[in-house]
Amino acid sequence: MMTLVDFPAPVGLLSNAAGLKMPFSDAIKYSILGLSVALLLVALGILAWQAFRCCTQTHTANTQQDTVNSELLYSDGKSTTAGNYSGAPSTKVEDVGRKVHMLSRCLSQASYSLESRQAIGDTGEQANVGKVEGSLRFSVYYDQLQSRLVVTVLEVEGLLEQSLTHSLQRFVKIRLMWAGGTVESGSDEEGERTGSVLWTVLHEWQTRIVKGSCNPLFGDQFSCVLCGDKELHDITLRMEVRDFDKFSRHTVLGEVRVPLGQLNILYPLELQKDLQTPQKDLVGEVLLSLKFLPTSQRLEVGLLKVRTALPEISSDAAMYGRISVQCNQCKLRYQKTSAVARCMVTVFNEVLMFSLPGLPLEQCKILVSVYGTQMTRKSSKHLIGQLTVGKEKSLEDEHWDLMMRSVRQPIAKWHGLLI
User: Per-residue pLDDT for 292 more than 60?
Assistant: First the structure.
């Protein structure tokens, strides 16, 4: 059996430990303690003062910003609409909404029919089209045994020279359009609903570029197999003559449209058509939401749904949206949505936020481009359609007007997707 015995520490060590003292006197110790307490109190006072200043400045800045934005929004419509309103609003939000409503009533109202969407929806590619001159010579042939359509672009004649310094680089863009359905666009005088044709681009081709000629010769041939459910009378051949520009958008010089159902193309048929003014085609609809935040000067654009006609589609087909904003001659950085599997009604439900340069908003254009791509493999994108929403100095569309009437509230509306 083991016994534990505690040995006492040596008496010398204990006496030495008790004899240890700090090298400072008591007066110095209390002085250092008092100085530390004073520094701590000063630091706490400075911290409290900075916190008070920060809270006061933030509240003052928000109040001044609301006042400035309200005055800017109200300045243009004050002279004509001040007599139609009376009574003081209870909150700043109601005040801003009321004054935005005043401004929107002063602006000219624009009916947003399909024709006006086509006029406003130009993306710059066709904005500079002036006088259309020239003609296009081509041939079309349909092989019934193989269900194959063959299109040959032969020559373009009589094009005008745009400028002496501009090099001529002409090519032809070909689209095979199929009338896949109709969408309701309004009502006629008798109150009956009318529809617009919903087109689908089956195939796209492009000829080679011919330089330095107003009468370019091409001789390029393109072919595709048409399925049995796509009858020829529903297909239109759309050919655009363009001038290539390496650093900007290609200029559209004119176009030719040929409904294949009106031609006998069971044998090779050669035609020569005069170029016409380019027009847009409706290829789908987009549900777009807009919300304006005047205090933070931000614009929220939501891409909710895209509806298109799909004759045939692969399982890995997808689409995504690209949104760009140009405000007061200042082009903001574009933003893209994520790629979503394509179907008859593709749902995105994504909201993108843009910081606007400043008020007042004299001009603001929102360009929404929808592209098609593949999800399983890396492939080049192709444009499905585009739409433009916004206002000019003397014109604004219906959706923009509704957004300005309902500040800080998202407003959703269907728009035509054009190409």
Answer: yes
As a whole number of angstroms, the distance between CA 361 and CA 391 comes to: 9
List the structure tokens of 372.
Answer: 């098609």
Long-range contacts of 220-223 (CB under 8 A, 24+ apart): 220/152, 220/153, 220/172, 221/150, 221/151, 221/152, 221/153, 222/150, 222/151, 222/152, 222/153, 222/174, 223/148, 223/149, 223/150, 223/151
**Paired tokens of 306:** 């895209």
Give the contacts of 316 (CB within 8 A, at least 6 positions apart).
374, 375, 376, 377
What is the rounded CA–CA span in Å between residue 397 and residue 112? Answer: 6
Measured CA to CA in angstroms, residue 26 lies from 17, 22, 161, 202 at distances of: 20, 9, 101, 96
The per-residue pLDDT for range 329-353, each reduced to its tens digit, is 888 889 999 999 999 899 999 999 9
- Helix 92-106 and helix 398-405, axial crossing angle in degrees, nearest 10: 150
Q: Is 259 in contact with 177 (CB distance < 8 Å)?
A: no
Contact present, 363 and 328 (Cβ < 8 Å): yes
The whole-number pLDDT of residue 300 equals 95
pLDDT tens string 53-100: 888 776 555 555 555 444 544 444 444 444 444 444 444 444 545 554
How far is residue 104's CA from residue 81's CA, in Å, rounded to a whole number? 10
- Strand 210-211, strand 169-187: pairing: antiparallel
The CA distance from 173 to 253, in Å, is 11
